[in-house]
């Protein structure tokens, strides 16, 4: 119910309704532009659905106000803000900037709605607060998708390796993998002690920093930090994206394993930089009871634009099935690391993935 303010406050109420009316329009317009950006600019069905849901829920919250009161308060003739636009508002150089400005516009307008509704219809205010928080989550997911689609644009072959028999064996393996054109190398070894793991990680850092290959540490943000790796990969039962970032900082990559479309959607909202999608096929490296398989690859490819690497039992023999299911990025271990000629196996997979 809208509040009957005492006569002395009725002027404030009128001002509040006018601010609410203007903010409602700005928020809806801003959200529509954001939705169009994720739909047409990113081609991301998941983010489009999220943006649309926020916009629809805004419409529902605004319906809690009396439209008659809002219209009565509308007085654009006397609105000193009409026709006032800054140079920054006019300057738009790319699609992403349009999305960012409109997200900010929507967030500021939601804040206005939240504050001014406290004066005239306080029970509605928390809905706008919730919508503002959801818009921050959306912003984080849009930024991660956009930035990583570009940062990892060429990253199609991702190889998981262990610490090897000894340091020389490890260094030889890494040399061949880098020469074979591997885009991302992950150090994944659950059997060596922490001291050896860190030594291998530091060695890998040195070798990859002279190349364009990214270096990720599996499971261990602490080791990733100490070795100055490019990032960490975490599983569903491990530290969250937020916790991994708290250790590593915002600039490092945080990847997450996903085994269902719900987990993949969640990872996007959590602000992951990329996702692993699997297991696709039975694996010699790790055993699984369940295989979401190519169905999950298809689901992810249909709606998510955050870089996604299919994983699990992938080799030169079956990688075409993954590509046909819609993903052009794969993470492999056995097919490359256990091959007789590691460099050749990597280069072969790479050329299939890059279609060259
Ligand atoms: C790229 C990539 N995807 C998935 C995994 C698996 O991670 P997780 O589920 O945590 O299992 P472990 O590797 O820790 O056994 C991965 N490592 N890399
Ligand atoms: C470590 C790991 N995680 C998977 C997942 O689906 O999350 S599949 C997998 C094993 C990857 O090795 P290979 O290419 O030898 O099967
Ligand atoms: Mg793990």
From TrEMBL:
Binding residue positions for 2-[(2R,5Z)-2-carboxy-4-methylthiazol-5(2H)-ylidene]ethyl phosphate: 283-285, 313
Gene Ontology CC: cytoplasm
Required co-factors: Mg(2+)
Catalytic activity, as annotated: 2-[(2R,5Z)-2-carboxy-4-methylthiazol-5(2H)-ylidene]ethyl phosphate + 4-amino-2-methyl-5-(diphosphooxymethyl)pyrimidine + 2 H(+) = thiamine phosphate + CO2 + diphosphate; 4-methyl-5-(2-phosphooxyethyl)-thiazole + 4-amino-2-methyl-5-(diphosphooxymethyl)pyrimidine + H(+) = thiamine phosphate + diphosphate; 2-(2-carboxy-4-methylthiazol-5-yl)ethyl phosphate + 4-amino-2-methyl-5-(diphosphooxymethyl)pyrimidine + 2 H(+) = thiamine phosphate + CO2 + diphosphate
Domain Thiamine phosphate synthase/TenI: 157-336
InterPro entries: Aldolase_TIM (IPR013785), ThiamineP_synth_sf (IPR036206), ThiamineP_synth_TenI (IPR022998), ThiD2 (IPR041397), TMP_synthase (IPR034291), TMP_synthase_cyanobac_bac (IPR016229)
Highest taxon of source: Bacteria
Single GO MF annotation: magnesium ion binding
Free-text comment on the cofactor: Binds 1 Mg(2+) ion per subunit.
Keyword terms of this UniProt record: Magnesium, Metal-binding, Thiamine biosynthesis, Transferase
Pathway entry: Cofactor biosynthesis; thiamine diphosphate biosynthesis; thiamine phosphate from 4-amino-2-methyl-5-diphosphomethylpyrimidine and 4-methyl-5-(2-phosphoethyl)-thiazole: step 1/1
Sites where the protein binds Mg(2+): 219, 238
GO annotation, biological process: thiamine biosynthetic process; thiamine diphosphate biosynthetic process
Binding residue positions for 4-amino-2-methyl-5-(diphosphooxymethyl)pyrimidine: 186-190, 218, 257, 286
Residue span(s) of domain ThiD2: 18-140
E.C. designation(s): 2.5.1.3
Signal peptide: none
Similarity comment: family membership: Belongs to the thiamine-phosphate synthase family.
Role this protein plays: Condenses 4-methyl-5-(beta-hydroxyethyl)thiazole monophosphate (THZ-P) and 2-methyl-4-amino-5-hydroxymethyl pyrimidine pyrophosphate (HMP-PP) to form thiamine monophosphate (TMP).
Protein name in the entry: Thiamine-phosphate synthase
UniProt organism field: Blastopirellula retiformator
Upper lineage: Bacteria, Pseudomonadati, Planctomycetota, Planctomycetia, Pirellulales
């Amino acid at each position: 119910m809208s509040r009957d303010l005492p006569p002395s406050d009725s002027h404030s109420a009128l001002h509040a309704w006018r601010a609410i009316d203007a903010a409602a329009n700005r928020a809806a317009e801003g959200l529509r532009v954001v939705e169009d950006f994720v739909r047409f600019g990113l081609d991301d069905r998941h983010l489009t659905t999220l943006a649309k849901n926020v916009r629809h829920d805004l419409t529902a919250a605004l319906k809690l106000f009396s439209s008659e009161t809002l219209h009565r308060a509308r007085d654009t003739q006397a609105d000193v803000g009409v026709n006032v636009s800054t140079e920054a508002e006019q300057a738009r150089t790319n699609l992403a900037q349009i999305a960012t400005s409109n997200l900010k516009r929507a967030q500021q307008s939601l804040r206005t709605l939240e504050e001014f509704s406290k004066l005239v219809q306080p029970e509605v205010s928390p809905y706008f607060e919730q919508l503002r928080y959801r818009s921050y989550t959306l912003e984080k997911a849009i930024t991660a998708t956009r930035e990583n689609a570009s940062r990892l644009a060429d990253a199609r072959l991702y190889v998981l390796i262990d610490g090897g028999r000894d340091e020389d064996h490890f260094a030889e393996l890494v040399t061949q993998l880098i020469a074979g054109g591997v885009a991302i190398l992950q150090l994944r070894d659950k059997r060596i002690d922490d001291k050896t793991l860190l030594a291998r990680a530091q060695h890998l850092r040195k070798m990859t920093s002279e190349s364009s290959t990214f270096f990720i540490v599996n499971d261990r943000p602490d080791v990733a930090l100490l070795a100055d790796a490019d990032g960490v990969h975490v599983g569903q039962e491990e530290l969250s994206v937020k916790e991994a970032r708290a250790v590593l900082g915002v600039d490092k990559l945080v990847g997450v394993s996903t085994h269902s479309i719900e987990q993949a959607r969640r990872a996007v909202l959590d602000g992951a930089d990329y996702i692993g999608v699997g297991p696709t096929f039975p694996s010699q490296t790790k055993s699984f009871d369940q295989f979401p398989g190519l169905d999950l690859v298809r689901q992810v490819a249909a709606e998510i634009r955050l870089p996604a690497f299919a994983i699990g039992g992938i080799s030169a023999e079956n990688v075409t099935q993954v590509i046909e299911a819609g993903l052009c990025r794969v993470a492999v271990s056995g097919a490359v690391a256990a091959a007789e000629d590691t460099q050749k196996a990597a280069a072969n997979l790479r050329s299939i993935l890059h279609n060259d």
